[in-house]
Amino acid sequence: MTLDLDPARLRIGIVGTGAMGRGIAQIAALAGYPVRLFDSNREALGAAIESIGENLERLVQKGKLDAATCDACLARLSAAPTISALGDCALVVEAIVENLAAKRDLVKQLETIIGPRALIASNTSSLSITAIGAGAQRPGRIVGWHFFNPVPLMKVVEVIDGLSSEPGFGDSLMDLSRRLGHTPVRAKDTPGFIVNHAGRAYGTEALRIVGEGCAGFADVDRVMRESAGFRLGPFELMDLTALDVSHPVMESIYHQFYEEARFRPSVITAQRLAGGLLGRKTQRGFYDYSKGASTQAETAVPAELPRSVWISRADSASFESMRALLPPNIPLVADAGQAALCIVTPLGMDATSCALDEGLDPVRTVAVDCFLPLNARRTVMTTPITSRAVRDAAHALLAADGSKVSVIGDSAGFITQRILAMIVNIACDIAQQRIATPADIDLAVRLGLNYPNGPLAMGDSLGASRILTILRRLQEFYGDPRYRPSPWLARRARLGVSLTTEEN
Ligand SMILES: NC(=O)c1ccc[n+]([C@@H]2O[C@H](COP(=O)([O-])OP(=O)(O)OC[C@H]3O[C@@H](n4cnc5c(N)ncnc54)[C@H](O)[C@@H]3O)[C@@H](O)[C@H]2O)c1
């Protein structure tokens, strides 16, 4: 079964006029569809139509919408006095409270009102579409249509097929999404769909790094923003979304996947949530917002440069990039025993293991993260017994050309390697489970999470075999199945093909 998408014939009903219902109503009316809104709370319904009017008015004032289009759009919006007034809607979007029983009741009620060929689209972000449709007379007509907040600005939407959903209805929602100016991606009904599933790595791995005492949250944020190119660091992001939203999502997806170690939440956010340190909205989260800014002072750059330096040749590319940073007056020595500072450049290993494996003095050894180009913020990692003088000399050396430097404690895989490898691995496993196509995974994450690149494309550009090495070493070091590589990654890395390669 499909929907006739002609705006002259399709009337869209929306039940639930919170932020999501309003947003969907606005883009549908702007695309030319008559929209009828219903909410069990009369005040919410009135406020919704008013607020859409204000939004459109703002667009007119900014010159982004002409007054005639605005008026025509507003004329297409109407409030339904009772839910029965949605009877002539061939598509009803439910955006009510996130509660399975409430959504199932609504489906049952709608089925007594709408026509036999009408489709019910659920905007749920965390409930199963299959479960919402269970008990319906025609479960085939329940399809997921997951928009993101704010709907007019977040241009991606997930179309989710439940086990009983009729594929033709999903196809219609894909087409309709495009007509509304959105980019649709298609997902199987699984916890978190694509975006909230793929988004599990960024925060949870950052929390592990901090929980392990390797680095402070501000350093993790700086490194992920400045070295890895993310718009917000993971802790800044948690402060923005607020822990009363993000911690329950972490727990919910972890439990829905039966305690999958890759998604394991952290006691850090559990405790902060219990303490009410939710983020920006309570003025205090990981950062203190009571004075406006969310900054934390950086360690001052030490003055003393090393007298001589030895650099590991275990990875020739890293050796070359490190050597290029040496100022001309600091000699590069060939014998580590004679160097004031020994630099190793591990992939997925910690500074201690690297120093010992290469027969170096761990007191005089630091590790530098050469996973990403060294032209942005650099990370120096110490062993537990690296002397302060050596640590400071390494800091001064890496900052000598004006670059920013983060100094962290020992961690297998630094900050960028751990977080990026986890992001790529989880995306690979979404592909492995056939939840979505590789192209849709990359599209959904870029548009839904604002990552600098899709995670599979990211894996390709970082090198799938390097990601595999990092994960294997992390798994061996920590003995944690969290880091086990997805078969999708392992096979494509060994075959030397792109992570976007689908099976023939
Ligand atoms: N807010 C987000 O960021 C976001 C993002 C994506 C998806 N979602 C999902 O969208 C849905 C709505 O989210 P929201 O943030 O707009 O919620 P909200 O709580 O702001 O609004 C829900 C509205 O539904 C009404 N309502 C509740 N039960 C009803 C019923 N049985 N019949 C009619 N109206 C009813 C309420 O009066 C309220 O106005 C939820 O399923 C949510 O998980 C939310």
Descriptive overview:
This protein is α/β, with parallel strands linked by helices. It folds into four domains: about 10-190, Rossmann fold; about 195-280, N-(1-d-carboxylethyl)-l-norvaline Dehydrogenase, domain 2, CATH 1.10.1040.50; about 310-405; about 415-495, Orthogonal Bundle (N-(1-d-carboxylethyl)-l-norvaline Dehydrogenase, domain 2). It is about 45% helix and about 10% strand. Strands 3-2-1-4-5-6-7-8 form an eight-stranded mixed beta sheet, sandwiched between helices. The longest helix is centred in the N-terminal third of the chain and has 20 residues, at about 40-60. The radius of gyration is 26 Å and the shape is elongated. Nicotinamide-adenine-dinucleotide binds near residues 18 and 40.
How many distinct beta strands?
13
Low-confidence runs (pLDDT<50, min 5 residues)?
A: none
Q: Provide the CATH top-level class of the largest domain.
A: Alpha Beta
- Residues in helix, %: 40-55%
Please tally the helical runs, counting DSSP H or I stretches of 4 or more residues.
20
Report the end-to-end length measured between terminal Cα atoms: 29 Å
Q: Going across the major beta sheet, what is the strand order?
A: 3-2-1-4-5-6-7-8
Small molecules bound: nicotinamide-adenine-dinucleotide
Radius of gyration (CA) equals 26 Å
Annotated CATH architecture of the largest domain = 3-Layer(aba) Sandwich
CATH superfamily of the largest domain: NAD(P)-binding Rossmann-like Domain
CATH topological fold name of the largest domain = Rossmann fold
- What percentage of amino acids are in beta strands? 5-15%
- Main sheet overview: 8 strands, mixed
Provide mean pLDDT, rounded: 97
For the record, the count of structural domains works out to: 4
Structure class: alpha/beta
Shape field: elongated
